[in-house]
Fold each of these.
Amino acid sequence: MSLRFSQTFFALMVLSFFSAFVLPQRLTDLGRTQFATLLIPISRPTYIIASAIRAHFVHEPSEDTRPAQAIEQENLMLKQQNLTMAAEIDRLAQRAGERARLGGIESLCGRFEVAGTDSDNHEGLTITGSGLSAVHVDQPVLSSANVVDLIGRIDRVGSLAAHVTLVTDAGFTVTGHFFSVSAGGAAENTNLMAIVRGQGNGNMVISTLPFEIVKRNVRVGDWIVLADDRWPQLHGVRIGRVASIRRLPSQSLFAEIGLAPETSLIHLSDVWVMTRQQ
């Protein structure tokens, strides 16, 4: 039996050699096809068994059988996430540009801790620190974050503390112009000056500009930045972001532009006071 098997194996090897290197390909292809046909009774059950095993242990991605509405909703969510990421990239680029443009301001300022907030209808902070001797009335007060914002001014100074009136306090006024950031870059509209007035409840308002001019030049999300002769060193510092635009209820030819600071000003832990001049 062993001799017969060896002879058969040797014959198959010789046949393989001739098929691969001697016989024309068209003949070997034909022979391969005929041989494969002879093996169908064995190969077909083996293929079926192997396919069943693979289907049991290897899960192919199935066709999405969810309703079209669910798929459309998921696509809309993904688009919204892409838009949010693009807006965040624009915001970070804006911050980087502002930081470079206004990066020397901190050298003119002293840092002070917030010791308390106003408990009446006014919006203000009480600050304290070792450098109070350099603090005076009407000095501007800025946020100490990575991006500098105007948050108010000093209105009272004592031996142990000073008081800050916030830009959101009713009656606080400051002048500025608009600053916008879009896919095309950043742009300052220095020709459209505005008077920003504190409105209370953490908000500000602009109500002195014609509605049609605002409609053509201002968009929700734009910034109003400082352009006030009292503090020329701070021109370009942010005041607040445009949160809403509508017609002024009492005078429809004018716009009412609602503004909001980037963060809640009454929850700051420390601030900068510009105690030195350039």
Amino acid sequence: MRAVRDEADALVGWLAPNTPVLRPVLPDGRELRSVPAHEMFRSGQALGRSQWRGNGILKVAPTGAPWSVMLFWEGDWTFRGWYVNLEDPHERDGGSIVTQDRVLDLWITPDRSVHWKDLVELEAAVEAGRWSARDAERFRADARDVEAIVSRWEPPFADGWEHWRPDPSWAVPDLPADLAWDYEVDPIGG
């Protein structure tokens, strides 16, 4: 991602269309969602190289928050909504930012309606031992906190990021050369 803003209250990054990314896949390279939810966390996971599909996204990671917000647009810049990814608070590690996904997500439409996503996957992760029931309740509490922020219409939702546009001269970044391109098996789930 390209850093758009890096200040004390938040880190904001732009993920341009066709940007190379590493993403979780099954050990054989298939998409995680190609198997039923109860198998997603029992089959093991790896990292696979891919490209960002679709339009770019702007990611706003409020400092210390256990979530980030990704803004999505149509190809003509019609705003689609905010995708809240529940995850560990972002930590800096040299020139990198480290976080870990918590499976549970929220979709917030332009009319401010909040829709919970991936509840079945969260329960499957608990059943597989990826997280405890206590962890899952904490993640649900974080989601309720985000709902309250949306209902009060506070930052980062109220910050006007939906009107932001990338500089058309920006080149698509590449992955750092020191990252492995092959699948790297992670012991998650096996």
